[in-house]
């Protein structure tokens, strides 16, 4: 199964991709996570990406495309994958087609997460991420057992710098301008499935699994 999760920042793509990839036993490729990892390790890619991420703008297409191409070609992705946060531009979507063609693979479905803007902002402003592992929480909706501490590994929880109010506005604008044209792009290819992103994490996951093509 090869899936793309599409939608504005904060709609729950990452959380749902994490759950669905475990359930379907396929890989999750999150370009945001890969880039943040590069930033944390101060790789040359990370250092280049950081300036864009801090401003809430997109990292240049060629950088993320190279990253995804490498990942898709790795053994862990042979059984399938969920792309979370990629593609984000039409050029990235065209490149993805090319990468898949090289492997003689098709995309099975594009899940388009739909959520009202005020709820997106509530989710982003309350989001807290573990400073060590990939776990993500929300101060109201998915609180950790101990305030500010990760349930999984005990490390301290932090707010992503790009989840701060000033940057959120810019990320949402960038989404509208550069990423939302992909809705029509994938609709035309008859790959788009619209997913209601409201409600509890488990409810959304149930709806999502029901929308997947039968294996
Ligand atoms: P995310 O965790 O998906 O919200 O991504 C965080 C930030 O990483 C974005 O605001 C961008 O600066 C960068 N980023 C992630 N994925 C992409 C992509 N496909 N294209 C360009 N920039 C990206």
Describe this structure in words.
The chain is α/β, with parallel strands linked by helices. The chain contains nine helices and eight strands. The protein has one domain: P-loop containing nucleotide triphosphate hydrolases (Rossmann fold), CATH 3.40.50. The radius of gyration is 16 Å and the shape is globular. The mean pLDDT is 95. It binds adenosine monophosphate. Adenosine monophosphate (AMP) binds next to helix 2 and helix 3. The site of adenosine monophosphate has 16 residues, from helix 2 and helix 3.
CATH topology value: Rossmann fold
Poorly predicted spans:
none
In helices, the fraction of residues equals: 40-55%
Main CATH class? Alpha Beta
- Termini separation comes to 8 Å
- Could you describe the largest sheet, including whether it forms a barrel? 5 strands, parallel
Integer-rounded radius of gyration = 16 Å
Q: Count the beta strands.
A: 8
Q: So, the CATH homologous superfamily?
A: P-loop containing nucleotide triphosphate hydrolases
Unique bound compounds? adenosine monophosphate
Shape: globular
Strand content: 15-25%
Number of helices: 9
Q: Which CATH architecture would you pick?
A: 3-Layer(aba) Sandwich
């Amino acid at each position: 199964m090869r899936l793309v999760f599409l939608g504005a920042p904060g709609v729950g793509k990452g959380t749902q991709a994490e759950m669905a990839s475990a359930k379907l036993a396929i890989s999750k490729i999150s370009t945001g996570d890969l880039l943040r990892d590069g930033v944390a390790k101060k790789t040359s890619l990370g250092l280049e990406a950081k300036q864009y991420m801090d401003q809430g703008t997109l990292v240049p297409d060629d950088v993320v495309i190279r990253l995804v191409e490498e990942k898709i070609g790795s053994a862990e992705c042979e059984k399938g994958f969920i792309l979370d946060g990629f593609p984000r531009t039409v050029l990235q979507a065209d490149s993805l087609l090319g990468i898949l063609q090289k492997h003689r693979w098709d995309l099975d479905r594009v899940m388009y997460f739909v959520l009202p803007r005020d709820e997106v902002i509530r989710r982003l402003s309350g989001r807290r991420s573990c400073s060590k592992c990939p776990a993500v929480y929300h101060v109201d909706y998915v609180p950790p057992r101990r305030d500010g501490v990760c349930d999984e590994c005990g490390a301290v929880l932090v707010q992503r710098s790009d989840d701060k109010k000033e940057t959120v506005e810019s990320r949402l604008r960038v989404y509208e301008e550069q990423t939302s044209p992909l809705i029509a792009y994938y609709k035309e290819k008859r790959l788009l499935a619209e997913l209601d992103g409201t409600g509890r994490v488990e409810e959304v996951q149930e709806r999502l699994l029901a929308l997947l093509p039968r294996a």
